[in-house]
Amino acid sequence: PDQTPPKDEL
Amino acid sequence: MNIFRFAGDMTHLCSIVVLLLKIEATKSCAGVSLRTQELYAVVFVSRYLDLFFTFISVYNTVMKVFFITSSFCIIWYMRHHRIVSQTYDREQDTFRVAFLVVPCIFLALLVNHEFSMVEVLWTFSIYLESVAILPQLILLQRTFNVDTLTSNYVFLLGAYRALYILNWLYRYFTEPGYSQWIVWSSGTLQTAIYCDFFYYYVVSWRKNERLSLPS
């Protein structure tokens, strides 16, 4: 698994 | 937040409002797939668990709460409203949702950014959203119920997807290091399914003048 992206989208 | 993202969120919101207004005004949910609506409820609940432990913005929180409550509101209308529930195309809306849910669960367990409960559920919701419209697609092809409001709903959902792709392109070129390939690949699949949907509408519209495309 790579870096977890920021969850700023809906 | 860029204009594409905001416009995408607004069309998504409008699509749900249009659907709720259609149900409330006509007291009918003919042509609407309960299975798709239930899948969307599952999508929102599994994705927005972070409401409890992450705060991003007031906008973000309000939109998440709206998506969860509105999806349950639609389900309530279709299942329990005395008049509306009688108009539900129960016999036609028979898509086996397990065929979508089970592969999405396995895929989320196998392909994710981080093997944790919340992250796997979030990934599952991304995968499930990309295919959740399929029961609706099947239902419309079976019933040929392409009234203007239902097609507005579908059109707005399609616009939401297209705007999100523009948003990702914009962010990719303006934000260094911005990358989220799970969302991108699922979103592209989802948009492709909507294109199929749109093609279907064009064909229906050509076959029957009574069926009109959304303006």
TrEMBL record, chain B:
One of its GO terms (molecular function) is ER retention sequence binding. The keyword Endoplasmic reticulum applies. The keyword Protein transport applies. GO terms for cellular component: endoplasmic reticulum membrane. It is found in: Endoplasmic reticulum membrane. It comes from the Eukaryota. It is a multi-pass membrane protein. Its main location: endoplasmic reticulum. GO terms for biological process: protein retention in ER lumen; protein transport; vesicle-mediated transport. Keywords: Endoplasmic reticulum, ER-Golgi transport, Membrane, Protein transport, Receptor, Transmembrane, Transmembrane helix, Transport. The chain crosses the membrane at residues 49-77, 97-115, 121-140, 152-170, 182-202. Belongs to the ERD2 family. This is ER lumen protein-retaining receptor. It comes from Ostreococcus lucimarinus (strain CCE9901). The gene is Erd2.
